[in-house]
Amino acid sequence: MRAALTLRAAGHSWKQCSDITGASYRNLLKWKDLPIAEAYVEEKVKEAQAGTYNKLISAGPAVADRLLSIALNPETKSYAAVSACEAVIRSIERGVLDREMREHITKRREQMAQLEHGRPIDV
Hints:
The protein is mostly helical and 123 residues long.
């Protein structure tokens, strides 16, 4: 059953899961609505997303280098250079905003902890 649920999390249809694993299609349809099955599929989907995200993060420096080389190369067509420059600038802006938001959230959490302990906060 786990194999079929893992295949489902990978994007296969219930029929495909049945064909690949040999599990009864009717049985899979009964299992799919059980909370334990739904939780298992959701966990497998989250694991796959985390793996994808980690792969993208790992490739980030190489992507940044490639974008910069395209943006700064005098032989790059103007439309491609503009797109590359915009992507670089968006990445920088997003990084700055993300950092500011994390700092803001950290500050709010600290203030909430102080309030929970009956201490005054600076506003």
